[in-house]
Amino acid sequence: MAGCAEDPGEAAGAEDTSLILTNARVYTLAWDDPSPDGAVMPDAPHDENGWHPDAEAIAIQDGEILFVGSNQEAMELKGESSRVIDLAGATVIPGLVDSHTHVFGLGALLDQVNLIGVATEEEAVALIVERAKSVPKGEWIVGRGWDEGAWANAYPDKALLTSAVPDHPVFMDSLHGFGGWANQAALDAAGITPDTLVPVGGEMRLGSDGQPSGLFLNQGVEMLRDAVPTPSRETLAKQLLLGLHQMAADGFTVVHDAGLDTEAMSILEEFEAADKLPIRVYAMLSLRDEDLIRKWIEKGPDGDTDSMLVTRTVKAYYDGALGSRGARLLYDYADQPGHRGISGDGYGFNQALNAEAMKAGFQIAIHAIGDAGNREAINILEKVFNEHPSTAGNRHRIEHAQVISPDDVPRLGRLGIIASMEPPHAMEDKAWAEQRLGSERILGAYAWRSLREAGARLTFNSDNPGSDHSIFYGLHSAITRQDKNQQPEGGWYAEQRMTADEAVRGYTRWSAYASFREDSAGVIEPGRWADLTVMTVDPYVLADESPGDLLRGQIVMTIVGGKVIYERSAAPTGSNRGF
Ligand SMILES: [Zn+2]
C-alpha cells in the first residue's frame, strides 16, 4: 500500500481539470484486433523492427481524454492550473481491468496478520502483539502463513502466545491450511476442552497437563475456523477499501467483482453514494443470494455504464474446481476412474432463477470449469436464447471456461458467449491438470488460441485472491505460458500463447467489451474516459525481446476518470525499454 493515498480526494491531481502526461510510450490500442491467429493488423504501430508506441503525450480534461499525440501539441493545451507530469519514458496503456476478482476477499487477506516468510514462533508472536495494540480487547485476531512444513519439528503452542496476547482470541492459520495455532482466549471462545470431539481426519494436540496445547492439525483446524465470528459490516467496509486501494496501487482502474451478496452490495452502494470508491466496480450479483436476485429482477439492470458502481450481471456457479476434482467432466477423471465431478443442481445451481434473471435483461457470468460443466452451461444459455431471443445479445460470459470439448469450442463464438479466463491459472494448474485430464483432454484446457481461432471473444483476469493479480504475472503467463520461474522451457502447450497485443487487450479493450463499455473505455482517444495505467515496462517490446523481464515491471501511476488515484512515491525511472 506504500504510496497509496489514504483519501483519494487528497491525491495529487485530484480536482485538476487539466492533466498533461508527457514523454511517455503511449499505446492507444486504437488499431484493429489482431487476427484470430495473432497476426498484427496493418493499422497497428508495428513494422519490421517490431512494436513502437503510437503517441508520446496525453492531455486530460474533466475526466476525459482531450488529446493524444506529440509532446509539443499536448503542451500547447497547458492552462494556468494544468498539472504536467513528465513520465520519463514510462509506458501508458488504457486503464487495466481485472474482470474477475473478489475484492472483499483480497481485503480480508490484507487485513489479517501475515506470517508468510516468518521464521520463528517468537517472531510471529511479536507481530501478533503489534497487531493487538490496535484491536479492541476481546476481538479476534486472525492471521495466516506460518509454514507447517518448515515448522514441523517445533510446532508452536499456546504458551508464549497466551502470555503475550492474553486479552484477544488469536487464530493463526498455516501457509497451506493444514495447521492451526491458537491462544487460550481462542480456545475459551471456541469452547474447546480436552473432551471436545475432533473431526475425522483431524488432530488436537494436548499438553503435558492434558489440556489442548493450542495446536491443531488437518481437519482439526476447522474447530478454530468455525469459531471465528463472521466479520462485522464495519470490518467488511474496511476490507473493501483495503482491497480496492491495493488494486489501484497495482494499476487497475476497474474490477469486475464476481459474486456479491446482499451485505456486500449494500456496502458498495453506500461507498458509491459517498463518492468513496477509488476505482470503478462492475458488480456481479451472486445467484446464490435469491433475495438479492429477486430484488434486482424487480428493478432491472443498471441502465448507465458510467457510474463508479454498475450492476447488470449475475454470477452463477455451475460446477466445482479441477484441482479438487469437483469440475464436471464428460468422461471419468484420468486419475480417478468412476468419478466425473459435480454440476448443476448438485452444485446448488438454480436454473429457473438464472433464466428469470436473463429474461430481466441481466448478463450472466456462469462459472464452468470441466468440459461437461461448460457444455451444460452453454446448453442452458442457448435454451433461454431460443425461447427468448432478446436474451441472446447480453454478452453472457463463462467464467474460467477452463476445459472445453473440441465440439463445444465453436459454440462460444457462434452464440456470442465470452470466455472469461485467468492466464495465471494455466501456470498454477499445469503441475497436475494433465493428471486429471489425460493427454487428449488437456489440449482443450486453458485453450486461449483455440477459442480465438473459433471466433470466441476473451477477457482476462486473476480470480484473486486465489491467484496473484499482478498484471506483470498475468501478461507474462498469457504471453509465455511459463511460470514465475520461467518454466517450462518454450512454454506449456505453447501453441495456446497469446501475443502481447492480445494479452494487453485481454485486460483492457476486450474487458471493456465484456462490460458494455467499448465506447467509453479500452482505447486512449479523445472523448473517452481518462482511465490510464502507467508502468515501468513496455510489454509490447519486452514480449519480443525478453519476456521474462515482464515480471520485473512496476506500476508508476493509476488514473481513473482523470484523477491520479495512485502514484508511486519514487520518481519514475523509465527508459526506452522501461527500466
Ligand atoms: Zn472467482
Layout of helices and strands, plus pairs?
Layout: E1 18-22, E2 25-26, E3 46-47, E4 50-51, E5 57-61, E6 64-69, H1 71-75, E7 83-86, E8 91-94, E9 96-101, H2 103-111, E10 113-114, H3 121-132, E11 141-146, H4 158-164, E12 170-174, E13 179-182, H5 184-190, E14 202-206, E15 212-218, H6 222-225, H7 233-249, E16 252-260, H8 262-273, E17 280-286, H9 290-299, E18 309-317, H10 351-359, E19 363-368, H11 371-387, E20 397-400, H12 409-415, E21 418-421, H13 423-429, H14 433-441, H15 448-453, E22 458-460, H16 471-480, H17 500-506, H18 509-514, E23 532-535, H19 539-545, E24 555-560, E25 563-567
Parallel strand pairs: 1-7, 2-8, 9-16, 10-11, 11-12, 16-17, 17-18, 18-19, 19-20, 20-21, 21-22
Antiparallel strand pairs: 1-5, 3-4, 5-6, 8-23, 12-13, 13-15, 14-15, 23-24, 24-25
Helix pairs in contact: 2-7, 7-8, 13-16
Bound molecules: zinc ion.
Plain-language structure description:
The chain has about 575 residues and is of the alpha/beta class. About 30% of the residues lie in helices and about 20% in strands. It contains 19 helices and 25 strands. α8 links the parallel β16 (about 250-260) and β17 (about 280-285). The protein starts with 17 loop residues before the first strand and ends in a 12-residue tail after the last strand. The model is unreliable at about 1-15 and about 570-579 (pLDDT under 50). The protein binds zinc ion. Zinc ion binds near residues 100, 102, 258 and 463.
